[in-house]
Amino acid sequence: MITNTSIKPTDLLPSLERFWKVSAQKIELINNEYDSSQGSPVFTVAGKYSTRGWTEWTQGFQYGSEILQFDATGDESFLEMGRRNTVQKMAPHVTHFGVHDHGFNNVSTYGNLLRLMNEGRIPESEWERNFYVIALRASSAVQARRWTELSAGGYIYSFNGPHSLFADTIRSLRVLAIGHQLGHAIMGENDTRISLLERLVQHAWTTANYSVYYGRGRDVYDVRGRTAHESIFNLNDGNFRCPNSQQGFSPFTTWTRGLAWIMSGASEQLEFLRTVNDTELEPLGGRESIEAMLLEMATATCDFYIEHSAADGIPYWDTGALNSHKLGEDVYLRQSEPFNDAEPVDSSAAAIGAQGLLRLGRYLDQPRYTQAGLTVMQTLLGDRYLSLDASHQGLILHSVYHRPNGWDHIPEGQLVPCGESCMWGDYHAREAALYVQRLANDDPYYKFYF
Q: N or C: which end of the chain has fewer CB within 10 A?
């Protein structure tokens, strides 16, 4: 990508104002038109949200978007939507033992509401606070209970089963961080107390060791910052067996949404660890080694993103997909081309990755990453990616869900998926927009923890 080295958060305020107006219209359109009896909205087909997938992992993004809309604009009608939907519909997600997505569903809803109360943005209420707290405590324990023990450490396993570590889950560690801050732990057999912080750190170590490449000769495809969507382990002996990919092109190419999950997850965990006492980290390897691990993971993946995205900061869905060569050798020096004939872009990866770049830039005080994140946001807020058609239910255009399975809509006259939106992309665009807006207005720093 070609970074805009002069852009500042304040430069995006006019675009952010338009963004939130469009966002409000999309939320209301979904509430008026979407048939919730079919399940959670996942991605659009011809501009209308539909549901399809393995698990109910997007409902928290739907209602979390309503809460973020209030956070950004102060419009209390969206707060009431988010509150009501969280209370009435999110309880099954708190005790959902079949998914690794608790940090997505429950931090986006219960977590955002508790954060707003802590910030004084909504009135203090003892019963309401306790309601959010108990939901987040329970969710953190359920998430951390999905555990595969290795000879050294372990990981929260994906819905594919105990052999499977997903790159995505590092962003879901936020619920373990909140549970730890709330004084919670898992209680095991014989009242064994299991630390949520310990499981958070161990999962981060396993992700760093097996999901991210550092150019050290791990295999012939070992390029610094490249990521594997899935890591497979032999449960008989606990040994790592191979990289894999469920939604990317291959185990040995980089699915860019998985890359973005790690960029964002590692960067925000670095921020969170600043709230943790050294004495708590000492038994887990010590602050210096833990932060070094997270920092190497964050910088490697963010550098890879910068080097392997189009000039305007939007990545293609997989850096090594079958027809990528047809995009030309200068693909990363040109503006992204959503309507090309070879491989689709993925704006949802950009929406997630932008926040990783911005948070890492602030953590390190490194303009290289901050300017890159703002460049991505400038593109997402522009006319090519912001969904300005009032009848289209999506907010950010040109996202991809599951290219190998052929789930994404290809419009008539096109050869690759384009023109559609997804719930996680729309939510994370709102989250990144709120982050930038708070920086621009010198408002309290936006963070998931307390």
A: C
